[in-house]
Amino acid sequence: MNTFAIRTQQLTRTFGPVRAVDQLTLEVRQGEIFGFLGPNGSGKTTTIRLLLGLLQPDAGQIEVLGVPVPQRAAEVRERTGALLEHAGLYERLSAADNLDYYGRIWRMPAAERNQRIHELLASLGLWERRNEQVKTWSRGMKQKLAIARALLHRPQLIFLDEPTAGLDPIAAASLRDDLRTLVEREGVTVFLTTHNLAEAEKLCHRVGIIRQGRLLAQGSLAELRRHEALHLEMIGRAFTPHVVTALQSQPAVKRVEANGARLLIELAAASDPAPLVKLVVEHGGQVEEVHRSNASLEEVFLTLMEEEEAHAH
Ligand SMILES: Nc1ncnc2c1ncn2[C@@H]1O[C@H](COP(=O)(O)OP(=O)(O)OP(=O)(O)O)[C@@H](O)[C@H]1O
Q1: CB of 20 sitting under 6 A from ligand 1
Q2: From 75, 194, 236, 282, which residue has the greatest number of CB atoms within 10 Å?
Q3: The ABC transporter domain covers which part of the protein (predicted)?
Q4: What interface predicted TM-score (ipTM) does this complex get?
Q5: Which residue has a Cα nearest atom 3 of ligand 1?
């Protein structure tokens, strides 16, 4: 059995001088919510279009649901759902009629279509409002309906390009909750793009971080964090330059900042804080409290971006 929903190898696509996707090697496992994270213009949408066979690659291999793309892209499009820039909804039709229309396109028999429409709209809290014209709906409701449309024919994999773009924080949170529930229930794999780090942290099992078409890292959030610096904060007194110098001479310490009663220490890797506390005390510092914090994904993201920037120069 193929455990990967998506696999690419050395995938490259250029537009004139721009390398929109640059030797991208990516693995998305079946059943996971994979977040494809990167700033504007980093190649996220181009990647989705390549995966769906809507664009031809210059080089590299793609396999989606075990099927080679672009060779058998039509098959992939049958077995996947997508929410790209346009929601693909008819504003003058009701929500139910929108889904019914797409159900007919997918040649779903009437009974199955009706049952599926009910199931999806009910789980998104939209069933009571199914007969209203979509044009009267809020952006968040429309976006949920667009997700229902993508899931209608029970695809094994869905692509969501910036699903919460333009939603206020409450609508975005509600969409994330519904999406998580639906995905769990249906066992569908989700490939979603976002430049919102907090969103990726809340929603995704694994993420890939892309910048200028290149994959900087991929893995679970815990894995990505493990590679990153840990931070230690000591509260106390007498954090003199003497103390700072002593800490800086330790191989485990990447950076030290003394700020009045706070001493901030960035560690190169996860390590026991006790020897560092001892060192501070030996050099005359008084430590009252010690806090440690894992890097947030935001820090991981920024660090990776900075490293990439440093290599580029
Ligand atoms: N059809 C095209 N013709 C020319 N350049 C393109 C085309 N599509 C994408 N690009 C360029 O490729 C790069 C990647 O664009 P892409 O839309 O994939 O980024 P993105 O990460 O999805 O950005 P955003 O978050 O803003 O949607 C950009 O520099 C973009 O200008």
Answers
A1: yes
A2: 194
A3: 6-237
A4: 0.95
A5: 15
